[in-house]
C-alpha cells in the first residue's frame, strides 16, 4: 500500500500535510465520508507515517511518507502495532459505551512502545453516547504527548458540536468512475468490461468496487436485481436470497458489513429507477438491465421511489443498532413487496 496507489486522498492528504508543515497539526481528526471511501485506509497510512522507523527525523514532513517495509510499517498494515489501535463498538451495543472510551484513554496515556507516539482509530464515531462524548472531550482538552486520534464517521453533523470544534475535519468524497477503474486496473483486474461495469455499480466507492470484483458478489447482485425488477416482486424470494448470502459468512460484523454493501447497491438501483422515471439513462446498472428498469419505472411514482429508499435506510439503521439480521431482512422484504407489488384494491 502506497500513497500513489490510492485515489481520492489528495485533498485530505494535502490538508493534513499543510497542518503538519505549519506546525498546526491537531491531536484529533474527523475522517468523514461514506463507507468504502477510503477513510480507514487513510487513517492507517497516517499511522504508518507517524510510526515508521525509517521516517526522516523531520517531524514536519508534509508528504506523510513512510517506507512500507520496516517492522513498524508492516505491523500497522497487519493491524497489530502496539502503538496503533482500532476501537469499534461491539455489534450488540446500541451506543459506544463509556467503558470502551475509558480503556481507549488509558491506552493512549501509556508510554509509546516505539517512542513515536500512540494512535487511536475510532469507528464509528457517530455512535458515541453523551457520556462517552463528554469523556472523550476531556482527552481532547488534556492530550497525551504524541497522541493522534482518527474519528471515522459518515455523518459528522451527528457528533456533538463541542467535539467537532475541537477536531480538524477531513472529508472523503466518492471517486469518479474513471478513478475507480484505474484502482481496479492497478489491483490487476485485466478484464476492462468487468472494470467498467463494477466502477459504475460501486458509485465511486473503491471499497465496494473491490468487493464486487469477486465473481460471486456480482452474480449475487445480478440475481438480486432480477428479483427486484420482476413482476410481481415477491418479498420472501428476495429475503431468502439475501439471507442465503450471509449464511456462509462467519461472524456478525462480517455479515453486517456484507448486508450494508448489499443495501448500498439497492440505493444505487432506486436512484437509477428515479433517473428512468425522469426520462434519463441509468447511471449504475448495465445496459442489459435497461428494459426491466423501464418496465418497473412505468409502474412507480416519486412517492413509491421515496418509500423504497426509506425502507432501505431504515433497514440499514436497524442493522447498525443491533437488530437481528434475519428479521430485519424479512421485514424489508415485506416493505418492498408493499411498495413494488401493492395488492390491487377493488
Ligand atoms: Zn517504515
Provide a concise account of the structure shown.
The chain is of the alpha/beta class and about 350 residues long.
Considering the chains and any ligands shown, give keywords for the structure.
alpha/beta, Rossmann fold, 15 helices, 5 strands, 8% strand, binds zinc ion
| CATH topology grouping of the largest domain | Rossmann fold
Give the ligands present.
zinc ion
CATH architecture of the largest domain, please? 3-Layer(aba) Sandwich
Largest sheet: 5 strands, parallel
Provide a count of the helices: 15
Helix content: 40-55%
Q: Please give the order of strands in the largest beta sheet.
A: 2-3-4-1-5
Give me the secondary-structure category: alpha/beta
Beta-strand proportion: 5-15%
CATH class of the largest domain: Alpha Beta
In round numbers, the mean pLDDT is 90
Number of domains: 2
* Radius of gyration (Å): 22 Å
DSSP strand tally: 5
Order of helices and strands: HEHHEHEHEHEHHHHHHHHH
> What low-confidence regions span 5 or more consecutive residues with pLDDT below 50?
none
Query: Span between N and C termini?
Result: 62 Å
**What is the CATH superfamily classification of the largest domain?**
P-loop containing nucleotide triphosphate hydrolases
What shape does the CA trace take? globular
Describe the protein:
By secondary structure, this protein is of the alpha/beta class. The protein has 2 domains: 3-171, P-loop containing nucleotide triphosphate hydrolases (Rossmann fold, 3-Layer(aba) Sandwich); 214-340, Zinc Finger, Delta Prime, domain 3 (Up-down Bundle), CATH 1.20.272. 54% of the residues lie in helices and 8% in strands. The protein is built from 15 helices and 5 strands. Strands 2-3-4-1-5 form a 5-stranded parallel β-sheet, sandwiched between helices. β2 (84-88), α4 and β3 (118-123) form a beta-alpha-beta unit. It is globular, with a radius of gyration of 22 Å. The termini are far apart.
